[in-house]
Specification:
The protein is mainly α. The chain is built from eight helices and six strands. Helix 6 runs parallel beside helix 8 and helix 7 runs antiparallel to helix 8. It is globular, with a radius of gyration of 20 Å. The protein starts with a helix and ends with a helix. The model has no long low-confidence stretch (mean pLDDT 94).
Length: 238
């Protein structure tokens, strides 16, 4: 592809998706990978984008235009009879088909997609790690928009879900290393001012039995451990 054709590419493209709930095939917008260029990535892996750029966070959740079910790639494709009844009654029967989330999204509409996904996850009793990812990315979206109060609210919810995911081991360790879960618990505790808890979980990362396989988490955990200790010292002096 030559340079002229590359410059004509739009940041958003249509991706074909099959709804895991009703089976409907439809297209929804996603951001092309070559346009995903964050200004920086924070220590909880939040990508920060410049104003006016297309944030992939806005398109993380997919919403079926047929049944209204909101989901991500983390969601299960198995639904019990009770789950199906719940979604049909609480989402499909009440959806407004004049509202479509398959096109370009604003900050406000992206926030609604996350909250719909959290509600969908509750109705089908998704794993804690799914809730953790949703709440974390919703907190990131609020951070990018400068809303620290809502960011903090959803960081707390994400932390709670990560802790439950760790306790119940309800995540696929092939896709998400346990060290990553431990690191996220430590980092979210640090961001929320729970420095002693943060230090405990950062230490668990650096002493983990699989640390030789995941030195990335060991290295950042060491840095954040130092930061948490210093922040705790400053807090105690205040």
């Amino acid at each position: 592809m030559n340079t002229e054709k590359q410059s004509q590419l739009e940041p958003l493209y249509d991706k074909k998706v099959d709804c895991p709930f009703c089976g409907k095939r439809f297209t929804t917008k996603k951001v092309r990978s070559r346009f995903i260029k964050p200004l920086r990535v924070d220590s909880d892996f939040c990508p920060i984008f410049s104003n006016g750029s297309h944030s992939p966070l806005y398109y993380y959740v997919v919403i079926c235009p047929e049944c209204g079910f909101a989901f991500t790639e983390d969601f299960t494709s198995y639904f019990s009879h009770v789950s199906r009844d719940n979604v049909n009654k609480e989402i499909t029967a009440k959806m407004d088909k004049n509202v479509n989330y398959c096109g370009e999204r604003s900050f406000e509409s992206s926030i609604r997609t996350y909250k719909l996904a959290i509600y969908s996850a509750q109705l089908v009793k998704e794993k804690h790690i799914v809730f953790a990812h949703l709440c974390l990315r919703l907190a990131w979206a609020y951070r990018g928009n400068g809303d620290s109060q809502e960011e903090s609210r959803f960081l707390k919810l994400a932390l709670n879900e990560y802790e439950k995911a760790f306790i119940n081991s309800d995540f696929d360790s092939e896709k998400i290393p346990e060290m990553q879960v431990l690191y996220m618990i430590g980092e979210l505790n640090r961001r929320l001012g729970n420095y002693s808890e943060a230090v405990k979980f950062f230490t668990a990362v650096t002493e983990h039995g699989d640390k030789s396989k995941n030195m990335k988490y060991v290295n950042i955990a060491r840095e954040q451990w130092k930061l948490a200790v210093e922040e705790n010292r400053i807090k105690r002096k205040a």
